[in-house]
Amino acid sequence: MTEAHIYVIGILLAWMAGIRAYLTVFGVGLAGLLGWVDLPPALQATQSWWVLGTSGALALAEFFADKIPGVDSVWDLVQTLARVPAGAFLAAATLSPDGQLGTGALVAGAGVALASHGLKAGSRALLNTSPEPASNWVASTAEDTVVIGGLALAMAHPWVALLLVVGSSLLGALLVWWIWRTLSRGVRRLFASPPA
What we know:
This protein is mainly α. Helix content is about 75%, strand content about 0%. It contains 7 helices and no strands. The model has no long low-confidence stretch (mean pLDDT about 85).
């Protein structure tokens, strides 16, 4: 694999960690343990039974917590403390041939994880304004699917995965902006004083 491929995979792992950190760590560790990929030295810790067990249990807890409107927003707020550092670690560990985590890779990974986490948390906060729970379940299941499919695609076709991630992130950001703008206009009209 070329250095460019490895860099793309590191960025993709950081992006996925911003959405589902525990599922991403579990998927990377499982792929390494089963021999599907050769993990760099710094990522080999994810193959340990302790890391797999802990990340698997937390991914399962997140799976259920993320389906409940309101609980998912609180969960997202608390998980900012896990997702951003996990993204930073995954990016830096992927790019480290000798096990040393570089500052530039840590910062890049943290930035990518923060961006995807912000997009996820922002879109879910908007969905929570809807009174029915079905949209929450659909969004949460879509996020699970994106991370699982993204992990597989990142390992097999990293450039395709990167194009899909960038495209979907831009589309998601535009959609959140448009919905937010529409809602704020509606609220302003609602509270505007009637013409005399």
